[in-house]
Automatic annotation (TrEMBL):
Family note: Belongs to the tRNA pseudouridine synthase TruA family.
Gene source species: Pyxicephalus adspersus
Binding site for substrate: Y172
Name the record gives this protein: Pseudouridylate synthase 1 homolog
Record's subcellular location: Nucleus
Every Pseudouridine synthase I TruA alpha/beta domain range: 209-312
């Protein structure tokens, strides 16, 4: 059974109609009583605000993005459910924010660090906001969240802290079955494939080429080669040794950069896979950063996870000032890993087994023309969209 506050959130018009009917039946005495109730409620609200004044904090969040239309909330739209819809409702139900803040999020100075998109998960998302620091805040928020969305930590921050603007870098991981690296001509293309050290070294050699500042206009949409915002700085990128889980051999690619554009990470990985499998020449890597338009395949969004966000400048300035904590979350590493093993990795594996999104995407690689001109690419993109049975869910690598 829903709580009274949940009923108010879910059925506001019905509650209003009931109150109206009651007041008509009970007459002037009820009006007077309602007046007293209103004053008493206002007094209780003021007492709550005095007892627990709002403070600027950050919340460390982990979530499985499957079934959600991304992180960012679209206030006034209930068509697509997002992670923030769940969080905001939990904040209201736990009395961390008043109900009117749910509709006007700027009243609590809400800001997310990264805008993960449809289906994309996070192990280290950080949001900044002003809330009432009630007793056992994290526990009470989690009591109103589904198990696949968790607040793992809370820390006080400076009054002007903004999780997006204060973020120096973001680290994403991409979990994929290792058979994606099997050469198209002379290696098995199914789950029996095992990644050799030689192939892993080749993958890492290609991934290392992304490090530094490059023009990534070919790795996103609606940006030309002369758009300065297409230049992005990549600090680290590598593929870790493989491991087995759920009957699949998996590998995790990690990339750290200042910020990422829509689809950028998925296309970076897609291009390396095309080279390793023998569909494209290694020279395409350098060519993709030039002015020429290059046809680059976009890997599925299923395996993409926001691992960590970095606040190095903030930590140097405020982390040891005696009033604020460093935002490195080292004390939460155990909880983060446990969440990934329980909610993120199983979802990726099970969805791949059931829907074969990666296998279906691999079948589209021969359709791409890796020497395509800008005119040819529009035709090729149309062919891929029509031929692939891929749950292409518009990325997740946007900040």
């Amino acid at each position: 059974m829903a709580s009274p506050k949940e009923e108010t959130l879910l059925h506001p018009s019905g509650v209003g109609e009931t109150r109206k009917a009651s007041s008509l039946e009970e007459g002037s005495e009820t009006v007077e009583e309602n007046g007293h109730d209103s004053k008493r409620f206002k007094s209780d609200h003021e007492d709550q605000a005095k007892k627990y004044p709002k403070k600027k904090v950050v919340l460390l969040m982990a979530y499985s993005g499957k079934g959600y239309h991304g992180m960012q909330r679209n206030v006034g739209s209930s068509q697509f459910k997002t992670i923030e819809d769940e969080l905001v409702q939990a904040l209201v139900l736990s009395d961390c924010i008043p109900e009117n803040h749910a509709e006007e999020m700027k009243k609590m100075s809400f800001q997310r660090c990264a805008r993960t998109d449809k289906g994309v998960s996070a192990a280290g998302q950080v949001v900044s906001l002003k809330i009432r620091l009630i007793d056992n805040t994290v526990e009470k928020i989690n009591n109103h969240l589904p198990l696949h969305i968790r607040v793992l930590g809370l820390k006080r921050v400076t009054g002007r802290f903004n999780s997006k603007n204060s973020c120096d870098a973001r680290t994403y991981s991409y979990t994929l079955p290792t058979f994606v690296f099997a050469h198209k001509d002379h290696e098995t293309q199914d789950e029996t494939f095992r990644l050799s050290q030689e192939t892993l070294d080749k993958v890492n050699e290609l991934l290392s080429l992304y490090k530094g500042t490059h023009n990534f206009h070919n790795f996103t949409s609606q940006k030309g080669p002369w758009d300065p915002s297409a230049k992005r700085y990549i600090m680290e990128m590598c593929c870790e040794p493989p491991f087995e889980q759920g009957g699949l051999e998996l590998a995790v690619i990690k990339v750290k950069g200042q910020s990422f554009m829509m689809h950028q990470i998925r296309k970076m990985i897609g291009l390396v896979i095309a080279v390793v499998k023998g569909y494209a020449a290694p020279s395409i890597m350098q060519r993709s950063w030039g002015e020429e338009k290059v046809d680059i395949p976009k890997a599925p969004g299923l395996g993409l996870v926001l691992e960590r966000v970095h606040f190095e400048k903030y930590n140097r300035r405020f982390g040891n000032d005696g009033f604020h904590e460093s935002l490195d979350w080292a004390e939460n590493e155990g909880a983060i890993e446990a969440f990934k093993k329980e909610h993120i990795y199983p979802t990726i594996i099970q969805t791949e087994i059931e829907e074969k999104s990666m296998s279906n995407w691999l079948a589209t690689l021969p359709i791409h023309d890796y020497d395509a001109t800008s005119q040819q690419q529009n035709v090729n993109d149309h062919k891929v969209e029509n031929s692939a049975v891929v749950h292409s869910d518009d990325g997740g690598d946007s900040d």
